[in-house]
Write a structure and sequence with these properties.
heterotrimer, A mainly alpha (191), B alpha/beta (659), C alpha/beta (291), B: 659 residues, alpha/beta, Rossmann fold, FAD/NAD(P)-binding domain, 5 domains, five-stranded parallel beta sheet, 18 helices, 22% strand, C: 291 residues, Glutathione S-transferase Yfyf (Class Pi), Chain A, domain 2, four-stranded parallel beta sheet, 9% strand
Chain lengths: 191, 659, 291
């Protein structure tokens, strides 16, 4: 949360805007006119620490910690409503992705359950070439919701009993090819 | 004695000197062939700057002038005049653009300087081959064509007519008056639009110097400044203007319906009669009805002719056809106005699908005392709304539609809020991004509205829907918006929403622009000669622009521009003659094979074919020296004066051998 | 009409009923869907949150595998549709990305030149087959059935051009071609919460509750959708929505392909109808039987 005291310039990070600006999808954020179309259209903005519009003003003002610590980025469901409506055509969803990656990179993931889900998703895809929903949920529950595990049972059972939850993963045949591609990306470095 | 070129380098304050090494450039110029002297100065266009050139020319030190400064569009004329004053032919001067093409567009000083050197070398070499040319004069026809009869055209026409000059005013609609005639009140003073506009409309109709052609469209424009030939199509009204006395019997008895009679309040919105024979509104000038063919029973089904039977003056004539009128004018004023943006393309605002979502123009008509609701603000079902939202910037400031600000919406939105408060008990919400109240008395008007308990929410509306989530939202329009100043997303149930739609270029403006050989910008509006110093002139002499034809603006600004344009026209007419460009193309008759390729290529229609001599000939008054024909001529029979082969090759050589 | 078929991971698991209905109706509609050999996960939204270039790279592998067949790639999953399309679009728009992806694919012995069109099955059903043809094949008209067309997010946004991002119409027309009524549903492109159902369950449940309430108050007998995640959230989690929001929603959530299958007269076991968590309700059954 914003500190309830006068904010001194020295506490702000004025390079933050440039840092975000250079991220893919970040180019247009300097042009934001703070009209609020994004927040007014977002299905989840009401539960966010800061609605998307405010995230942009925080970035511009240099409130680095507030942005990366906020739950905003993890509440984005990638519905792209903001992106198609933004009068400045800012790719807001892409900026949210970029902020998610930056937050993960800087370890600002404490208590962020979405990070656990995403990271396990990546692991599974790298392992099998495909997602395995059963294993994904099991890993996620163990790592993030162990004490709430029981709440996943009814829906899990429903899926299983209807034959919608396969027990075994499907591994693609040419997993080596996929891994070679991923290894090359690793060498090239992220964008 | 070889040609002696004087080179003058302008610093343009720091505009040029800040990015170009002037000393280096001057040193380079001194070494060029034929250069007799090099001088540099802070502002070449200033008096002392011009005097430098004049004294060198008068002292006989040089006989050709190269000025390295800004774009020729800016100051070519300035320096040509200096040459004239010094007794030297102005075409012995040439200009090098080292500002727009060098210092303004390059970041690196070294490369910017190098490019300036190249360009300057090219100009110097070209200057050696320049030839003196004679300017010619043409007479100016004192009559003026005004296209468009809204407040812009009305003001311009009256100014000229009052000065004793003839005006032909062409209006596409059946009546003059334009959008302003649909308004009830005007901001910020809240004068009644009819009270201030109608007397002027009447004056137009009665003025001895004004020939009003309503329900007419300009079809063709040929010619050039001072001598334009105009062809206008007079569309058939099916009512004889000379016989009709505007009694109104025809539209009272007409069974046709131009505007549905059965629809709800909003579907029936109209200012004039809803019949097929109609006047657009009751104060129309000329006060002569017109038949709408699309809904007329006789034209559609072959039966009816009731208007003919009831007309005591026998003014109805179903056989009337479009007619054409041709005449000459000296100047043209384009005052075509705007059309409102159609918000139905923004699906999330529900215009066209949700009831009680209106455009600002529809809301104006509803407020107009002479309109179908008698000035009452009503919901579609005829009841009075208890809450109204006014959404700003619909189609404006939005890259999907128009990037520009439409300039009038903030103020008319405030006016709407005031009218609603005055006429109803409704709550009013203004949803805005920024309130732009910049004109005289505008901020004061905003201040007044703040005191009238209008609710202002800073936030662009996300969507308008009928997604009911709570009981009290039932049957209402739900506006979802972020109140950005509070930082909360709000759902506001409203009875009615008014969309403040953008002002768009008028339909057909491109065609008018093309006929007048003026260009339009990417926003669709006509590009003025200079945004600050030539806001009503265009790149084509004798063609002027007024009002929204140039860019969105309000009534005060439009009227000011109209008077500015008419004064510019008057100054042309008073001069009686105008000099025209001498740098035209020329056909060498002996070489011309008579193939006529050039005739159709010329964008200014300046080339005709001489049937007797079997050669093409160029009308120098029309020719702009663009060079299209020169490049196209297969026999090399055409040369462009001031841009002949020798001069252009010299320029290229200069460019290539510079360093 | 032959296409390269990219099912996506969900369609092979939690959405296998979607697959069954697609298999059942395709031959009747003249659609030949040849599954892409050895396809891998598109990356969905989760991969993009962790690694960007890798996410584009795994997605691009599928495009590279599909390119030699010179056919449109068709997917029934909205997330796959979005991700594959986005990869395609950014591949053309950003030369830097294109270069890196090219190098990465090369490491796997693949190449891609950007010439594959990725389409959603709704696009194919609406534009290639068309409501007229479907209507002519209908054996059991669904007269009287009121359907809420739920498109969700990722099929219409970001704009892919085949339907409007706020007020799409293609599925409405398909529903009408079966004789059913497509109700006015203002929430047709609102978000169901997607994968937030896993991580922020209460929030996603509330979003689903709005969708279910909206459909019921529009008088719909059932919701029809085209996205595996949307279907699972609205169907499998409906009882949980009821518990959290103290509601009594009981509205079946079908795939559009299942509804088409019913109208084509196919038996319900071929369409995976028995796998729905919310069973077909009495009024729906009556209409279907009477049809």
């Amino acid at each position: 949360m914003l500190k309830k005291e006068i904010v001194y310039e020295s506490t702000l990070d004025h390079d933050f805007l440039e840092e975000i600006y250079s991220l893919p999808g970040g180019h247009e954020i300097k042009k934001c006119i703070q009209c609020g179309t994004c927040s007014g259209s977002c299905p989840t903005s009401h539960v966010m620490d800061h609605a998307p519009r405010k995230i942009f003003s925080l970035i511009r003002a240099g409130f680095r910690e507030e942005v990366l610590d906020s739950n905003t980025i993890w509440f984005c469901s990638s519905c792209y409503t903001c992106s198609v409506r933004c009068p400045k055509e800012i790719k807001i969803t892409d900026v949210m992705y970029a902020l998610k990656r930056l937050a993960i990179k800087e370890g600002k993931t404490k208590g962020k359950k979405a990070v656990v889900l995403s990271k396990n998703f990546v692991k599974l895809v790298n392992k099998y070439g495909r997602n395995h929903e059963t294993e994904l949920m099991t890993r996620y529950i163990i790592q993030a919701e162990l004490f709430n595990a029981f709440k996943f049972i009814p829906q899990g059972w429903k899926l299983f009993s209807k034959g919608r939850l396969p027990l075994f993963p499907h591994k693609i045949k040419n997993i080596d090819q996929l891994r070679k591609i991923l290894k090359k990306v690793d060498e090239l470095g992220e964008i | 004695m070889p040609e002696r070129v004087g080179v003058y380098i302008c610093h343009c304050g720091s505009n040029i000197a800040g990015k170009i090494d002037i000393e280096k450039l001057a040193g380079f110029a001194e070494k060029l062939d034929n250069v007799a002297l090099v001088r540099d100065y802070k502002f070449m266009c200033s008096d002392p700057g011009q005097n430098l050139i004049q004294s060198d020319l008068e002292a006989g030190l040089i006989d050709r002038v190269v000025v390295a400064s800004c774009s020729p569009l800016m100051h070519e004329n300035t320096f040509r005049k200096v040459c004239e004053r010094s007794g030297v032919n102005p075409y012995l001067f040439t200009m090098t653009n080292i500002r727009e093409q060098c210092s303004w567009v390059h970041i690196d000083e070294a490369s910017s300087t190098e490019k300036a050197m190249d360009l300057l070398a090219a100009s110097v070499r070209r200057a050696v081959y320049l030839e003196p040319l004679e300017k010619r004069e043409v007479a100016i026809n004192p009559r003026t064509l005004v296209i468009g009869g809204g407040i812009a055209g009305i003001q311009a026409a009256l100014d000229l007519a009052e000065a004793g000059k003839e005006v032909v005013l062409v209006e596409r609609e059946p009546s003059i008056g334009g959008h302003m005639a649909k308004f009830d009140k005007t901001f910020p003073t809240l004068d009644c639009a009819a009270c201030i506009l109608t007397p002027r409309m009447v004056q137009i109709g009665q003025h001895a110097n004004i020939h009003l052609m309503s329900y007419a469209e300009v079809e063709e424009i040929n010619g050039y400044v001072g001598n334009f030939n105009i062809k206008v199509r007079q569309k058939a009204r099916y009512v004889d203007a000379d016989l009709c006395n505007g009694c109104g019997m025809c539209w009272e008895k007409c069974p046709g319906t131009r505007v549905p009679r059965k629809g709800n309040v909003h579907e029936k919105l109209s200012l004039g009669p809803t019949s097929s024979i109609y006047m657009p509104f009751m104060q129309a000038i000329p006060a002569i009805p017109v038949i709408d063919r699309e809904s007329c029973l006789y034209f559609q089904k072959g039966k009816c002719r009731i208007c003919e039977q009831v007309c005591e003056r026998n003014a109805i004539n179903y056989d009337m056809e479009d007619s054409f009128e041709e005449f000459e004018v000296g100047n043209i004023i384009i005052a075509t106005g705007f059309q409102p943006f159609d918000p139905s393309v923004i699906k999330r605002y529900g215009y066209g699908t949700l009831p009680n979502v209106l455009t600002s123009v529809e809301f104006e008509i509803m407020n107009c005392a002479s309109g179908s609701t008698g000035g009452k603000i009503l919901k579609a079902d005829g009841t009075e709304p208890k809450s109204i939202g006014i959404v700003h910037c619909v189609g404006s400031r939005d890259k999907h539609y128009h990037e520009y600000c439409s300039r009038v919406c903030c103020m008319y939105a405030l006016k709407f809020a005031h009218l609603i408060k005055e006429k109803t008990d409704a709550e009013v919400y203004n949803f805005y991004i920024d309130l732009r109240c910049f004109g005289k008395g505008y901020e004061e008007f905003y201040d007044r509205l703040l005191g009238e308990d209008v609710r202002f929410i800073r936030g662009k509306v996300g969507e308008i829907s009928r997604w009911v989530a709570e009981e009290d939202e039932k049957d209402q329009l739900i506006v979802r918006v972020e109140d950005t100043l509070v930082g909360a997303v709000r759902r506001i149930p409203l009875d009615m929403v008014v969309l403040c739609t953008a002002l768009e270029k008028q339909d057909g403006l491109d065609r008018v622009a093309k006929m007048c050989s003026v260009s339009v910008g990417k926003d669709g509006f006509i590009i003025e000669k200079h945004p600050k110093l030539g806001p009503v002139s265009t790149a084509t002499d004798g063609v002027f622009i007024v009002g929204v034809a140039q860019s969105p603006k309000d009534i005060p600004d439009t009227v000011a521009q109209a008077s500015a344009a008419s004064s510019a026209v008057l100054s042309m007419i008073t001069r009686e003659k105008i000099e025209i460009e001498a740098a035209t193309a020329e056909i060498i008759e002996e070489k011309c094979s008579g193939c006529r390729i050039c005739n159709n290529l010329c964008p200014y229609l300046a080339i005709n074919f001489d049937e007797e001599k079997k050669v093409s000939i160029i009308n120098e008054a029309l020719c702009k020296g663009c060079g299209t024909c020169v490049a196209a001529c297969p026999s090399n029979a055409i040369t462009a004066k001031h841009f002949n082969d020798k001069q252009i090759f010299a320029e290229i050589e200069g460019l290539l051998s510079a360093r | 009409m032959k296409y390269t078929y990219y099912p996506g991971c969900s369609v092979k698991a939690t959405a296998n009923l979607y697959q069954e209905s697609i298999d059942a109706i395709s031959p009747i509609l003249g659609l030949e869907l040849e599954e892409l050999e050895d396809w891998n996960c598109c990356g969905a939204t989760a991969y993009m949150s962790v690694k960007e270039l890798m996410s584009f790279a795994i997605s691009a592998r599928n495009l590279a595998l599909a390119e030699p067949f010179h056919r449109d790639v068709v997917t029934p999953c909205s997330a796959c549709y979005l991700v594959l399309n986005k990869t395609n679009q950014y591949f053309t728009e950003y030369p830097d990305l294109r270069k890196k992806l090219g190098q990465a694919l090369e490491a796997g012995g693949l190449s891609y030149s950007g010439n594959i069109r990725v389409r959603h099955i709704l696009d194919v059903l609406f534009n290639d087959v068309g409501p007229e043809k479907i209507s002519s094949l209908v054996k059991k008209r669904l007269d009287g059935l009121r359907v809420a067309p739920y498109y969700g997010c990722q099929i219409v946004r970001p704009e892919m051009g085949f339907d409007d991002p706020d007020d799409p119409q293609s599925m409405d027309r398909l529903i009408e071609s079966l004789g059913a009524t497509s109700v006015e549903y203002p929430l047709k492109t609102k978000c169901c919460g997607a994968s937030l159902m896993g991580t922020e369950e209460d929030l996603a449940l509330r979003l689903c509750c709005e969708l279910l309430t909206g459909a019921e108050s529009a008088g719909a007998h059932c919701i029809v959708t085209l996205c595996p995640l949307c279907q699972m959230n609205l169907d499998v989690y409906q009882s949980k929505v009821n518990r959290l929001c103290r509601m009594k929603h009981n509205i079946p959530v079908l795939y559009i392909t299942q509804l088409i299958g019913i109208a084509l007269g196919l038996p319900s076991k071929d369409l995976g109808l028995d796998k729905l968590a919310v069973k077909l309700t009495k009024p729906v059954k009556e209409i279907l039987q009477g049809a």
